[in-house]
Amino acid sequence: MSGDIDVIIIGTGLAGLYCAMHLRDDLKVALMTNSKITECNTYLAQGGITTVLNEADKELFIQDTLKAGMYKNNKEAIEIAAEEAMDNIITLQNIGVTFDKKDDYFDFTSEGGHSVNRIVHYADLTGKKVFETVLAYVRTKKNITITENITLVDVLIEKDACKGVLVLKDDEPQVVYSKKTVLATGGIGGLFKKSTNQRILKGVATSIALRHDIEIKDTECIQYHPTGLYDPKQREKYFLISESLRGEGAKLINIHGNRFVDELLPRNVVTKAMLEEQKATNSEFQYLDISFKEEIYLKNRFPLIYKECKERGIDITKQPIPVTPVQHYAMGGICVNLDSQTSMKNLYACGECSCTGLHGANRMASNSLLEALVFSRRAAIKMNDTINEGELEEPNSGVLIEKEMVQRLHKQNEEIIIEHIKNVRGDLIYELVEYR
Ligand SMILES: Cc1cc2nc3c(=O)[nH]c(=O)nc-3n(C[C@H](O)[C@H](O)[C@H](O)COP(=O)(O)OP(=O)(O)OC[C@H]3O[C@@H](n4cnc5c(N)ncnc54)[C@H](O)[C@@H]3O)c2cc1C
User: Does any ligand 1 atom lie closer than 6 A to the CB of residue 41?
Assistant: First the structure.
C-alpha cells in the first residue's frame, strides 16, 4: 500500500471520523474499517451526547461523572470534557447535525446519573444522525481516503515507535506505513453473548496493547446496560431501550408490577438491583413502562424504539417493555494521556478502545460520544502540531509478512483478549460467546 501516508486511523466510528475531520488538510490521511462503514456502535447510539450547560453546571457535571464512576475517574479528563463539550456540540451543529430544539435552543434531556437535563439529542437516533453528518463532511475532504473491509491485525513497531499497521484485506496481509497511527476500534461487546454492541467489535486494540506491552487501564470495568430488550432467542446484538426513556419518566417494574429501584440511579446500581430482583422473583426480565405518556409524544420522541418494539409485537404506547441487563460498554482500554497518546511513540488511541479515565469504574450515560468528540479532536490537534517535528526515520521496508503468520496473529487477537477478560473478570466467563 502507498508508503506516504501521514496518519492511519483504524475505525470509522465517531472517534475515527471526528479525528480525521480535524487533521490538517495538507496531511494524507487513511481511514480504515474492517466492515461496512455503518457497522459501528456510533451508528446505534440513541440517547444523546452530554454537554455542559454553563459555568455553574461544570462543577455539577464533574461531580455527577465522578459519582457515577465511583470516584475512580481521572478528574483532569472530566474537567477537559466539561470545558470543551459545548464547543464540540456547536461544531457538530455547524456541519449540519440538527439536534432537537425547544424554544430555539437545545431540547436538553436527562439520563441516569445526571442531576440536570444536559443531554443533546436527535430524537432517539442521535448516533446515526451524528455519524452520517460527520461522514458526509469527511468525504468532502480530498486528503482523506476511506477503505472498508480492512482488518487490523497488529501495529508495526521499530525502535520502540509505531510505524504503521499490519492488516488483512480480502484475507491477504498488507503492511501500511504511516508517521502517526490512531486506534479507534471501539468496544468489546462482540465477545459477549448478550450485548448491545455490533458483533464485529472484539477489543482488538487491547489485544495488540497486551501483545506489545503498551499500557492498558481499567479493563476490568465492563458496563452492563440495565435495559436491553429481553429476547431469550436473541443471538445477534440486543436491541437497546435507551436510558432516555427513564430520563423522560419510564418506570421499571418487576413481573408482579411493583417498582423496586430509583430508575435514574447510575447504570451499575440499577443493573445490580435488577439482577437481584430477577433472583428474588425467579424471572429473567423486568418491565420498563412508559405507556402512560401520550401516544403522539412517544412516536415522535422515540421513533426507533417504537418501530423496533412494534416489529417484535410490543406496542410501547400500550404495554410495558420486557428488559434485562446486557453488556454495553468498556470503560477501560489503551491508557492514553489527555492528548490521546498511548505509551508507544507515534501511536494514539481514542473513543471506546481508549481509556482517558473520564468514566472511572462506570460510565455515566451519554458521556461516551462526548469523550469520542473531545479526545479525538485533541489527538488531531496534537498530531497537527507535532507531525513535522524531529527526524522521521524511514521504516524498514523489508518487513517479512507471511500469510499464515498474519492469520495466526489475527486469531491470537481474540484469544489474548478473552484470556485477559477471564483473568480480570472471572465472574463474567460464562457471559462470553465461547461458552455458548
Ligand atoms: C446501542 C447503543 C446505544 C448507545 N447510545 C449511546 C448514547 O446515546 N450516548 C453515548 O454517549 N454513547 C452511547 N453508546 C456508546 C457509544 O455509541 C460508543 O461508545 C461510541 O460510539 C464509540 O465510538 P468509537 O468511534 O470509539 O467506536 P465505534 O463507533 O464502535 O467504531 C469502531 C470502529 O472500529 C472498527 N474496527 C473494530 N475492530 C477493527 C479491526 N480489527 N480492524 C479494523 N477496524 C476495526 C469498526 O468497524 C468501527 O468502524 C451506545 C452504544 C450502543 C451499542
Answer: yes
Catalytic residue positions?
267
> pLDDT tens across 15-54, in order?
999 999 999 999 999 999 999 999 999 999 999 999 999 9
Q: 268 in ligand 1 pocket by Cβ < 6 Å?
A: no
Cell match 489475527: residue? 410
Give residue 87's pLDDT. Answer: 98
- Answer yes or no: is the C-beta of 190 below 6 A from any ligand 1 atom: no
Q: Which three cell numbers stand for residue 9?
A: 486511523
The H or E element that residue 222 is part of is: strand 222-229
- Quote the pLDDT of residue 401: 82
Percent above pLDDT 90 for the chain: 91
- Ligand 1 pocket, residue 40 CB under 6 Å: yes
Average pLDDT over residues 93-101: 98
The answer, yes or no, to whether any atom of ligand 1 lies below 6 A from the CB of 416, is: no
Could you name the CATH architecture of 226-327?
Answer: Alpha-Beta Complex (3.90)
Cα distance between residue 361 and residue 416, in whole Å: 22
Please give the distance, rounded to the nearest whole angstrom, from the Cα atom of residue 186 to the centre of ligand 1.
5
Write down the pLDDT at residue 430. 87
| Coil, helix or strand at residue 431 | helix
Tell me the C-alpha distance between 11 and 301, whole Å. Answer: 30
Measured distance CA(161)–CA(71) in Å, rounded: 33
Residues of the chain with CATH 3.90.700.10: 226-327
Q: Hey, what CATH class is 5-221+331-426 in?
A: alpha beta
Return the ligand 1 atom nearest residue 244 CA.
8
Q: Return mean pLDDT, the chain.
A: 95
Question: Residue with the nearest Cα to atom 9 of ligand 1?
Answer: 366
Nearest of 127, 92, 111, 82 to residue 358 by alpha carbon? 82
CB atoms within 10 A of CB 120: 26
Instruction: Report the distance separating Cα 26 and Cα 358, nearest Å.
Output: 32
Q: Please state whether 50 falls in left (phi above 0), alpha (psi between -120 and 50) or beta.
A: beta
Is residue 13 in contact with ligand 1, taking CB distance under 6 Å? yes
Question: Which residue minimizes the CA distance to atom 17 of ligand 1?
Answer: 42
Which residue spans of the chain are classified as CATH 3.50.50.60? 5-221+331-426
Average pLDDT of the segment spanning 6-17: 98
Q: What is the pLDDT of residues 332-366, one digit of tens each?
A: 999 999 999 999 999 999 999 999 999 999 999 99
Q: How far is the CA of 252 from the centre of ligand 1 (A)?
A: 27
Tell me the CA–centroid distance for residue 415 and ligand 1, in Å: 21
ipTM, interface predicted TM-score of the complex: 0.99
List the residue whose alpha carbon is closest to atom 13 of ligand 1.
45
